[in-house]
């Protein structure tokens, strides 16, 4: 067996130190060829007790804290020997890294938004869930699914407008972002398309991203910053460098609770339903996949669903968990049933397949 072949097999056990040591011992004794490969394959199908750690992609901010405080104790009750490590990063930053690593994947479960849920389908990054491993799926309302057949929704947030209340009055319409007095004061994204969806809606074209990009073109001087981080955008608006930004309700509410000078509103034309989806990633043994799914099931537990609302200002996916009375007036929080009927639902399957072209269109029309 060549050194490259040996290295490839050893890399497959990077997250399982005990099995790596066994294989290294075989290498040292001169084992190789077919026997070595067959033994490595047998180890890859190890029992759940031998899966020492799972790595899970999480959104940044308060989310990893909720997962550590709420979901780990729940999971440890039934799987005390499996550790959970969280990799906290936005999808825009983490997904390209996951894509580059898929020949030797690290992340076995992921928290992704609608857009990257569909991009992952196109890139063949996800496996299907086994309902037997995620019984809490029964708490979701009818029709609340991940388009494309992969993934499970676990929380949501309306996408509206974040603003600095010391700089501007509460926006009433999405067209307020085009007011000439806000020249250079609007922050925008070029990897998320909700603002363009709503621009299409208010110009009578429906949730058409291309139409929305074209509608923004005459007003591109208002765009003062392009961002790829929710927290960076919140800081820009809070400091008054930017005054308005199409943004997530939950992230705005979290920023406000941390003392940042921001507010959130859903304009009269409505907002976009942004949904968090759990995904099980390809490239792992059946046991790792099963344990990952059983862990992700805790995200739909009553305890975690309530924590999403109270600590993260997310809207619950579960119909069993209701929004506490004290938070019902918060525009960032909405029930899953109301989200299905009151928010805009774009065709994310189509959108996921067109991301490179849409990004190029934004570059040509709004950044040039």
Number of strands: 11
Number of domains: 3
Task: Provide the CATH top-level class of the largest domain.
Answer: Alpha Beta
Our count of helices gives: 15
The fold-level CATH name of the largest domain is: D-Maltodextrin-Binding Protein, domain 2
CATH architecture label of the largest domain? 3-Layer(aba) Sandwich
List the uncertain runs.
14-23, 42-48
How would you sum up the global shape? globular
pLDDT average, as an integer?
Answer: 88
Rg over CA atoms? 23 Å
Question: Approximately how much beta-strand content do the residues carry?
Answer: 15-25%
Instruction: Give the distance, in angstroms, between the N- and C-terminal Cα atoms.
Output: 54 Å
> What structural class is derived from the secondary structure elements?
alpha/beta
H/E series: HHHEHEHEHEEEHHEHEHEEHHEHHH
CATH superfamily of the largest domain: Periplasmic binding protein-like II
Give the % helix.
40-55%
Largest sheet: 9 strands, mixed
Draw up the topology in text:
Layout (H helix, E strand, L loop, with lengths): L2 H9 L5 H12 L4 H12 L8 E6 L4 H16 L4 E6 L2 H10 L8 E4 L1 H9 L3 E2 L24 E12 L22 E4 L4 H9 L6 H8 L6 E5 L2 H10 L4 E5 H9 L5 E3 L6 E10 L4 H11 L5 H11 L2 E2 L19 H7 L5 H6 L1 H13 L1
Parallel strand pairs: 1-2, 1-3, 6-7
Antiparallel strand pairs: 3-10, 4-10, 5-8, 5-9, 5-10, 5-11
Helix pairs in contact: 1-2, 2-3, 4-12, 7-8, 8-15
């Amino acid at each position: 067996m060549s050194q490259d072949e040996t290295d490839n097999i050893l890399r497959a056990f990077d997250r399982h130190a005990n099995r790596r040591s066994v294989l290294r011992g075989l290498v040292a004794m001169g084992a190789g060829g077919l026997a070595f490969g067959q033994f490595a394959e047998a180890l890859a199908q190890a029992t759940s007790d031998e899966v020492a750690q799972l790595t899970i992609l999480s959104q940044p901010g308060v989310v990893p804290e909720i997962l550590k405080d709420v979901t780990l104790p729940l999971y440890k009750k039934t799987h005390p020997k499996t550790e959970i490590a969280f990799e906290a990063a936005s999808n825009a930053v983490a997904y390209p890294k996951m894509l580059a690593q898929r020949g030797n994947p690290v992340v076995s479960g992921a928290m992704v938004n609608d857009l990257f849920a569909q991009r992952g389908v196109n890139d063949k990054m996800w496996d299907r869930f086994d309902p037997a491993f995620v019984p809490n799926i029964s708490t979701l309302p009818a029709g609340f699914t991940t388009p494309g057949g992969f993934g499970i929704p676990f929380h949501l947030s309306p996408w509206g407008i974040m603003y600095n209340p010391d700089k501007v009055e509460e926006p009433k319409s999405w067209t307020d972002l085009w007011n000439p007095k806000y020249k250079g004061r609007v922050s925008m994204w070029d990897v998320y398309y909700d603002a363009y969806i709503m621009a299409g809606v208010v110009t009578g074209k429906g949730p058409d991203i291309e139409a929305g990009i074209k509608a923004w073109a005459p007003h591109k001087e208002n765009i003062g910053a392009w961002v790829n981080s929710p927290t960076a955008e919140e800081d820009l608006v809070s400091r008054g460098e930017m005054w308005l930004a199409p943004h997530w309700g939950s992230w705005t509410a979290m920023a406000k609770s941390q003392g940042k000078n921001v507010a959130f509103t859903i304009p009269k034309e409505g907002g976009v339903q942004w949904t968090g989806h759990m995904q099980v990633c390809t490239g792992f043994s059946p046991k790792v996949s099963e344990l990952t799914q059983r862990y992700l099931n805790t995200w739909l537990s009553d305890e975690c669903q309530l924590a999403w609302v109270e600590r993260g200002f997310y809207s619950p996916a579960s119909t069993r968990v209701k929004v506490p009375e004290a938070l019902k007036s918060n525009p960032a929080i909405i029930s899953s049933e109301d989200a299905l009927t009151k928010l805009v639902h774009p065709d994310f399957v189509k959108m996921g397949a067109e991301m490179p072209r849409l990004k190029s269109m934004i570059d040509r029309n709004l950044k040039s």
